[in-house]
Amino acid sequence: MPLRSDIKKVLVIGSGPIVIGQAAEFDYAGTQACRALKQEGLEVVLINSNPATIMTDKHMADKIYIEPLTLDVVKRIIEIEKPDSVLSTLGGQTGLTLSMQLAEEGFLASHNVKLLGAVPETIHKAEDRQAFKDTMEEINQPCIPSKVVETVEDAMEFATVIDYPVIVRPAFTLGGTGGGIAYTPDELHEIATNGLRLSPITQILVEKCISGWKEIEFEVIRDSKNNVITVCSMENMDPVGVHTGDSIVVAPAVTLTPKEYGMLRSAALNIVQALGVEGGCNCQFALKPDSFEYAVIEVNPRVSRSSALASKATGYPIAKVATKIAIGYSLDEIVNQVTGNTYACFEPTIDYMVVKFPKWPFDKFVYAKKTLGTQMKATGEVMAIAPSFEGGMMKAVRSIELGMDTLTKKAFLELSDEEIEKKLYDVDVDRCFCIFEALKRGISIDRIHEITMVDKWFISKLNNLVKLEAWLAEGELTQEKYETAKKYCYLDSTIERISGQKIKERKLAVYKMVDTCAAEFSAATPYFYNTFDEENEAKEFIETHPTDKKKIIVFGSGPIRIGQGIEFDYCSVHCVWSLKEEGCEAIICNNNPETVSTDFDTGDRLYFDPLTREDVEALIATEKPYGVVVQFGGQTAIKLIKHLTDLGVRILGTSAADVDAAEDRELFDELLEKCGIPRPQGSTVFTTEEALKVANQLGYPVLLRPSYVLGGQNMIIAHCDNDVQEYMTIITATELENPVLIDKYMMGTEVEVDAICDGEDFLIPGIMEHVERAGVHSGDSISVYPCQTLTPHIKRVIIDYTEKLAKALHVIGLVNIQYVVYNHEVYVIEVNPRSSRTVPYISKVTGVPMVDLATKILLGKKLKDMGYQSGLYPSADYIAVKVPVFSFEKLHDVDNQLGPEMKSTGECLGIAKTFGEALLKGLTAAGYKMYDKGGVLISVRDSDKNEVIEIASRFEALGFDIYATGGTASILNRNMIATNHAYRIGKGDPDVISLLESGKINYVISTSETGRQPSRDSVKMRRKAVERSIACLTSIDTANALLECLEMHKSVDDVEMVDITKI
Amino acid sequence: MILENSKKASLVLADGTVFEGKSLGAEGKVIGEVVFTTSMVGYQETLTDPAYCGQIIVQTFPLIGNYGVNSADDAAAYNAAAGYVVRECCEDPSNFRCEGKLEDYLVKNGTVGLCDIDTRSLTRVIREKGVMNGAIVCGDFDKEALLKEINAFDAGCVTAKVSVKEKQSFAAENGKYNVAVLDLGMKNELKDQLLKRGCNVTVMPCGATAEQVLAESPDGVIISGGPGDPAADTAAIETVKALIEKKLPIYAVCKGHQVLAVANGAKITKLKYGHRGASQPVKSLENGKTYITAQNTGYAVEFDTMPAGAAELTHINGNDKVCEGIRYLNIPAFSTQFSPDTSGSPHDTGYLYDRFIKMMEENK
User: B283 in contact with A at a CB cutoff of 8 Å?
Assistant: First the structure.
């Protein structure tokens, strides 16, 4: 069936801000969808509140709304744009849920809008627990004994029937939010209460726990002709019980004989047919390891994280194909773009192993619980392609950027054998490393299997690495040993370290192709990974496709993590597009399967490999590029600059020496002195003693952070010696290559500037001002463009400093500078001679295509030639407010008080004519609810007590009841604000916890001198607020901003919707 | 993972290409036609698939032997593969039914194998140059002499080797139909699928005459798959020609499909590198649907050479569009190049057996 003739204008709903469980994969899917729709000549309207995405870029759709993803907003956009169809399956759970609500309310029918992708019946059958069970029963697919309940009592009763442990899964929540395994009635009571509250329909599923079974997934695609195929099978290394997003996953499944494989594949096909999915679908199964017994765990009738992984693992573009199916095509009409001469109606075969490794945020959140369960905690992931599982693991572990190049975790070396064996019982983020350590200690494979239930296949493979490393460590490093280690993807530096010997004859990697068909057909789309074989398919490809274009490699940003998110993929992809436009051959190297950059048709060639020195060296040797670009891939890419320079590669853009001048403390101080620009006083240290000395010289509070970081990793404000000691202990636990920076901490207005420089002129598209005063990480602050409170003089100073810094650092391309304005003086906090997380949003609201201009400058063009003048670009007519979004409900024991260390996982944007309206949109998009009355609980540190008086009186004036803890309550009462006393935890009635549970509180304002330690009362109170989904404001400035919105007495419905393509 | 002390072995192709690796399974020398299969699971079924008789099989998936071997999963009671080439053979397999390692199984069956080579590179050679003869040898060898031997090698007709020697009968529970299978190299699965559907099965040797087949008074005849060039099966072709005359319901699979086509006057062509794997897309021209099939063939029917009006094309390959299924117009017969319902997967085309049973029902 060709394109449906009744489809002309399609609304695509995006997935909103990046949160744990819903990350960049939906930008990848949405971007593919928009491109596929445009290719068909359809008019595309897009809504997504996330400004860092590629899909919200001007040329991705005809109309683009960066607006809150609420039902009312989507309805208004449908009324304004009058699309004839809505695509439901490419915007993650957010898109799916909104689509279903629109359909169920009859809104779509009454506006003559068709739902494409999954129809409501399909969504209902897959997502409603009972309907799903009934459907599975009808087609004889076994489910786990379970019951849907709506009260805690029913949950408890059912658990006694099926016996503990039981799993709780709330209906319609993302990434299993609010779920968990309960081993006792007490635990069930807690989890069920929480799950019921988080479920938008107050419904949870209580089911028999089958942890220890194998977890197998199939990605299936079906079209309206009922053609149905599986794209890929995947096996989780972690047995059932660990969320698949938190599990090490391999593709294809490896421990199944054809009988089990066929059984589950048939089950997947039957399920997808029974649900009537038209498009992509993910089916998860649990398989009993010692029989053919299995159960269907979950089905997602949409593209998902797993489908992004399956797409990258096989080369099969699931999102694109799903979109074409949604608009009428059948699989046998869609060409397989990889081979170019076969069709999408086939099952890919692969001739390599794929290993996916999750990226968790626990290198940042040192006090958070690292245990894994049914609730996902990873922020991102990497994928490795290798000829063996062992090789895949080695590539994955160095891609994940934990400072590891083998599976040996330093901390485990210090544990005794008994401690290691005991640690094996912990289902946490280090389990795979613990298994590795246990094998090294001689704990048997059987014993490890008995404890962990990880299939022996995986354990044996890890044991192979143990054997290999032992072999390397003993005797002479022969060429045979070296080559064997290379085959299993060890780095030269690792081999030299383990063997303690120099390598005699180095071998560089060669490249193999990912082609969907295990070489059965010759492929047209070049997608490669490195191996240590003889044949170099990439070299062959380059030689058989000669071109006189300049070859340029763009290095990507690796896994999505807090501080380095999707915005760097936005920059990398835009750079590639501009390079292509400029007639260059653009080559991408990255290791993140969730992104647009690793789509095989984004660049002219894709290399799916780790971003380490040696991997990069092999790529340079094969490609022999004209130049490389490192300034768009975040810290991951810029970190490579020195090594690339040493290899003699031409760096396009700011040079290694200048990057160093910005990041090396002493060089930077010299440069500032030369320019006459002040900065907060500070110094660099390596040891705790030095740190204490400097801190006391500067006077508290001081800011501590390692040099060469992004996202404020391990950054704190220290108020006393204790803080400094605690911090230095944590940071010196990992190897300290670079010193720690200590600065005097100034609590002023933070201002951020991104500039584009060509060596002569510089362009500032806009100055951003942070709502929160310095001390809250710039990524966690509400950021406003254009700046609202700066005087013309201060602005002039900032422009002047920016120019001086750009020139002094010889910036070519992008630079990001953060300033603090303190007592009417401007100080520089840091300069990053690379792209930043604000680039996508500033590009969108100012209309200045920043990455495009920067890329052209890298190639030698000048701002003048492109029609831009030096200096600050005229302000746009709209005000844009970027509001951070957090994933605190998924990370237990993380203190949600904001500080210098970045904690947000994503962001939303509000765009409007006035600051207040833009803020209202931004806060609404980020999930803040606007109440006009209710209760506010206030508990602030002494330094905030004066300022909180005004805040409290404004809340009181709005009609809110005020509650406060001890000191805060007495100061408020003294200032004539009627305040209810809330006791400290366990010290009276009501205490803060019972108050938060009472439902009387709508907002919490909580600040404390110190935080982090989960045992502290203030942290417990803030955590409670997170658990009860009560907005918790941890800065006086944020509270002020919220009040401003409340005082407007407006809702988003009263504010104009803005199509950003018209800006 | 092989760390040390393993024997060197090589694969020598007729064009002189040599892949040096390590010995796997039985040691020795073997010559055969080198073919690749893209199946990612099902190595045990592959090794015992009679259609591979005399061939050196290359697995494109690099990790083979992951779930070991077991006595229940042989495709036929016949060790078909002459030689076996994998990138890496798993030394510590894991599966609840695992009874042993693949490597030991190869030794036991005397299959000469080779591992630790770049199988993708080898596959690309075969894809570009087409299937060719080759040899696996352990240790040192005289390349010139070996190449002569390789080039002179002709497997000839191997059907008799893989077919039953005497007829064999199997009764279904409450069997409703009697089906004779002309065994050109049948897999157990074919028999099991028929028994499952209430057919008593009599397996006839490939040399059986039409009279011998008819003596079993079958309600229908299945012509099974098997190895090699169908044109060499002259006896089977004659038998099929005679059976056609009797207008008995016939369903022919794999090589049987080719034999039936030849018996009806069509020609066969040799494919450059065949269709071997578990994910060959086949499009039904009857309902427009595409099915994922398991296949193992080096030949295809040239449908254009079929006498006019004799048959219609029912299935084509989704990739290269060659003939995959035929329905005959003047006789109650149809055929497919793939075997429906192969044990591992894909399970998509079992309906073809049902169609055969319906045909027998209507013919009764």
Answer: yes
Separation in Å, CA of A864 to nearest CA in chain B: 51
d(CA A972, CA B126) in angstroms, rounded, equals 84
ipTM: 0.94
Rounded distance between C-alpha atoms, residue A584 and residue A859, angstroms:
10
Give A534→chain B minimum CA distance, Å.
8
Is residue A1053 within 8 A of residue A912, CB to CB? The reply is no
- Stated as kind and residue range, the H or E segment containing A911 is strand A906-912
pLDDT of residue A599: 93
The enclosing domain of B308 has a CATH number of: 3.40.50.880
Q: CATH number of the domain at B38, please.
A: 3.50.30.20
Kindly identify which residue of chain A lies nearest to residue B119, measuring between CA atoms: A351
Q: Within chain B, which residues score under 50 in pLDDT? A: none
C-alpha A149, offset from chain centre? 32
Q: What is the CATH number assigned to the segment(s) A355-499?
A: 1.10.1030.10
Closest chain A residue by Cα to residue B341? A262
- Determine the Cα–Cα distance for residues A970 and A952; give it in Å rounded to an integer: 13
How many A×B Cβ pairs under 8 Å? Answer: 176
CATH fold group of domain A125-351: D-amino Acid Aminotransferase; Chain A, domain 1 (3.30.470)
A929-1050 and A355-499 share a CATH fold: no
Closest by CA position to A559, among listed A598, A509, A599: A598
Q: Which numeric CATH code is attached to A929-1050?
A: 3.40.50.1380
B344/A262 Cβ within 8 A: yes
The tokens describing B223, both together, are: 């012509």
For chain A, which residues make up each domain, given as ranges? 9-116, 125-351, 355-499, 510-643, 681-737, 929-1050
Question: Per the structure block, which two tokens stand in for B193?
Answer: 């699928």
| pLDDT higher than threshold 70 for residue A102 | yes
B120/A contact by beta carbon, under 8 A: yes
pLDDT at A713: 56
From the CA of B68, how many Å to the nearest CA of chain A?
9
Residue A173's pLDDT is what?
66
pTM of the model: 0.93
Is A457's Cβ below 8 Å from some Cβ in B?
yes
pLDDT at A710 over 50: no
Which chain A residues have a beta carbon less than 8 Å from that of B272?
none
Chain A residues whose beta carbon lies within 8 Å of the beta carbon of residue B289: 225-227
Which residues in chain A touch residue B93, judged by CB atoms under 8 angstroms apart? 457
Residues A202-226, buried b or exposed e (16+ Cβ, 10 A)?
A: ebbbbbbbbbebbbbbbbbbbbbbe
What's the domain range around B71? 8-152
**CATH fold label, A9-116:** Rossmann fold (3.40.50)
Of A127-131, A758-762, B159-163, the one with minimum mean pLDDT is A127-131
From B2, B95, B277, residue closest to A255, measured CB to CB:
B95
User: Greater confidence, A833 or B157?
Assistant: A833
Mutate to test the interface with A, among B273, B316, B319 (most CBs of A within 10 A): B319
Three-state secondary structure call for residue A132: helix
Q: Looking at beta carbons, which residues of chain A come within 8 Å of B279? A: 346-349
Confidence of residue A1015 (pLDDT cuts 50, 70, 90): confident
- Whether B346 contacts chain A with CB within 8 A: yes
Residue type, A47: I
Closest partner residue to A519 among B39, B94, B120, by Cβ? B120
Is the predicted pLDDT of residue A211 greater than 70, yes or no?
Answer: yes
CA distance B116 to chain A (A): 10
Q: How confident is the model at residue A711 (pLDDT cuts 50, 70, 90)?
A: very low
- CATH for A681-737, among 2.60.40.10, 3.30.1490.20, 3.30.565.10, 3.40.50.300? 3.30.1490.20
Cross-chain residue pair B290–A332, CB shorter than 8 Å? yes
Which residues in chain A have their CB less than 8 angstroms from residue B119's CB? Answer: 351
List the end-to-end C-alpha distance of chain B, in Å, as a whole number.
Answer: 59
Give me the percent of chain A exceeding a pLDDT of 70.
98
How many CA atoms, within 13 angstroms, populate the side-chain half-sphere of residue B11? 35
